[in-house]
Amino acid sequence: MLDFRDLHMRFGERSVIERITLAVRPAQFVAVLGPSGCGKTTLLRIAAGALHPCSGTAENHFKRAAMVFQDARLAGWMTAVQNAAFGLKAAGTPWRTREQEARRILLRLGFEDADLTKRPRSLSGGMRQRVGIARALLMRPDLLLLDEPFNSLDIGLRREMQDLVRTQVDQMGIAALLVTHDIAEAVRLADRIIVLSPRPSTVVADLENQPCDDAADILETSARLLRRSEIENALLRQRSSPSRSEPAISHSAVIPILRKEIP
Amino acid sequence: MLRRILWGAVGLAAVGLAWSWGHAVFGPFVLPRPSEAIEALICLVKSGEVASAVRTTAVQSLLGWVAGCLLGAGLALLASWSEPIRYALRPVATGFLGIPPIAWLVLAFLWFGSAGFMPGFTVAITIFPVVFLAVLQGLDARDPGLAEMAQLYHASRTLTFIDIDLPQILDHLLPAAATALGFAWKICVMSEVIGSGTGIGGQLATARAHLDLPEAMAWILLITLLVLATDVALVAPLRSWVATRRDTTVKAGD
What we know:
The complex is a heterodimer. Chain A is of the alpha/beta class. Chain A has a single domain, classed as Rossmann fold (3-Layer(aba) Sandwich). Chain A contains ten helices and nine strands. The longest helix of chain A is centred in the middle third of the chain and has 18 residues. Chain A starts with a strand and ends with a helix. Chain B is mainly alpha-helical. Chain B has one domain: MetI-like (MetI-like fold), CATH 1.10.3720.10. Helix content of chain B is 85%, strand content 0%. Chain B has ten helices and no strands. The longest helix of chain B is centred in the last third of the chain and has 40 residues. The two termini of chain B are 31 Å apart.
């Protein structure tokens, strides 16, 4: 079990996380939903043991956690097999075993023999992301940490990768902690959805969810969630200082459209 | 590949033609015929002088090159490890880069005398700033995301350095080391001509003293052949290895 209690994280003078309490039980798929820059990735890094909170407790009782990154993070000079096997190499697995296991899992994830020796530049975005997923799954984790891994993919590929991850998680019976700012993604995949406020983030909603595949169901559930004032405020509230690259969303424009389409 | 070799041969043939033209216009006291230089080179090879001179110059060049690369790379690693060391070394390397090799040659002559490691020292001290700045650039350009990935997958420091850091550094180190190798021959021969009087440079100085122009041209021809041979045997394979690692094939999708 992953257990965060009254977590507080600050970088210099800037407080990123304030009083976050959450838990991930074995075989549970938890999605942490929040606006960009609210400290979701920081939360994952704390879960992975790469960061320590300024106050509060972060206890990870899972034996092995493995992370899937937003941008796959593959070494450009390694082949798909070598990249997938990197975690096993770090764990000291002999060369022959790790190569065989990496080949096996990549083939299971839809690679063809000819793709196995390709380097990341020769692979499509979806294939690169699959190598990243393979690298994590090869560690036989009991906790999978997913840092917006579907963000950079187009809609079709995103759906395919989401199915792939959910299937693998179900088959292996492992827990997963997904951070995302996409409410539909959380509704589609997670057993539990935790919504964070903008920075400094706190938990504004902690909800049980029934993962669903149907697009209409996903949209309806997303709209229903967004009608809750605390979630609407957390996800759609106009920021006081929008970033240059990301124009502020006018929530007064978005909500009526959703309400109109889904009565 | 064949096309590249063909055009390379065309370039060399053009130089040969220009040489013949120079001989025809300026006469044998300025430029001997190319065939005279080749005959002189054959005589030198037969007499055994070439083998001994090449051995001396090659040893000094390669020792100086290896020492310069190790010094430059080692100092760059130190500079990346500690910020004060980086601030202290950067102006030193930039300053050393501006010092002409001839200045080092004079100092080396005074410090080591005319024999021994004098040419090698001049080579090493001239090329180390080139390698230092290239390796430092490679260290600075490392992808922090990959380092974090290695850390989160609990890779040891050794594995992270060998599998993640070193390949990124090599992308910058190899081109600099290849350029430095070309410099090493030139600086070494110059040191031998002016200072030690050994190796190819020493033989070149003797030919000059005897006003033996065909023999002087034969030694110059030999240096050119050695530089080309080094490029084909050592530098070109390194370049193609780096190109392979960069993998310029077209993406399958995206």
